[in-house]
Amino acid sequence: MDKIINKLISNGFVKGEQKIIDIKDLEELTKIILLLRSQQIEKGEKSPFLKLVGSSDRLDILLEKIISNKYVKENLKQILGERYLLMSPSARFSDEGDSGLEIHQDAVGETGLLFLLTDQKEGQTVMVKASHRFPGRISNILSWGSKKLINIISSLYFSITGNAGDHYYWFHKTWHGRKPNTINGESSITLFFPFFPFAANRFDIAEKNQSSILKTRNQYLKNIMSQKIPYNDKVLEIPICLKIEKFDIKALLNINFIIFLLKISILEVLFSPVRILRLLRKIKF
């Protein structure tokens, strides 16, 4: 197991070391997505998300280049196992005035490839180091997890920064969110490629992918976004992305996890009045 995977297991996210797309393709990819974004806005659609697959043949080829890159495939195989399912990828835009997104967690086994389409020196996406080691999913009940407070607790999280073309691998169990965009006139674009191991048997995701599958003529994307045969995880070796779902007592020996526990304990005490106010709002006098 190489250092990239070891760091992912330790922190819940890791920056890739190799460039996975050349400059010419990156510039073309950016141009296509910006055009699609302008068309989306012209239609009056205000969503910060844009589905990508099937929008154009050339875009699909460029998406294929990213996820079929030799190094990406090697790392995804170590994380997800031999076979895995791609959930329809999307571009996420953070424009000036974007309100951000509260700290949260996603589905069991979900693992992401995050690709920076633009330079992000400040970083809009944030992740809480070693939080994936905490058992279960409790981020939705944190007293300090709202997007209104996310800038106040900057000492807790790690901002995903880098240059256009950089990429990260991450477990979606890791507590993550998005900072409000308060940078005057600055926008950022991030591409999200969520994956599930076949061992998770997420046929619902494969079904939701059908609209994108029908739109694209790219056979590679069609195949990687489909799963028709159930997988018996009793026969297969459990992939890393599912192993981390269970609490490992050895995590208590990990310095990052110990620091994480100390920080969230302090924050829960400091923001306990916020929790009390939320409870009072729910009480009908």
Question: Would you kindly provide a written description of the structure presented here, covering whatever features stand out?
Answer:
It is a single chain. With 285 residues, this protein is α+β, with helices and mostly antiparallel strands. Helix content is 35%, strand content 16%. Strands 1, 2, 3, 4, 6, 9 and 11 form a seven-stranded antiparallel sheet that branches. Strands 5-10-7-8 form a four-stranded antiparallel sheet, with no helix packed on it. The longest helix has 20 residues, at 23-42. The radius of gyration is 19 Å and the shape is globular.
Based on the model shown, name its key terms:
285 residues; alpha+beta; Jelly Rolls; seven-stranded antiparallel sheet; four-stranded antiparallel sheet; 10 helices; 16% strand; globular
Summarize the structure.
The chain is α+β, with helices and mostly antiparallel strands and 285 residues long. It has helices at residues 3-11, 23-42, 57-67, 70-80, 203-208, 210-215, 219-224, 240-243, 255-270, 272-282; strands at 13-15, 49-51, 84-86, 90-94, 101-104, 111-116, 125-127, 158-159, 167-171, 176-178, 188-197. It is built from ten helices and eleven strands.
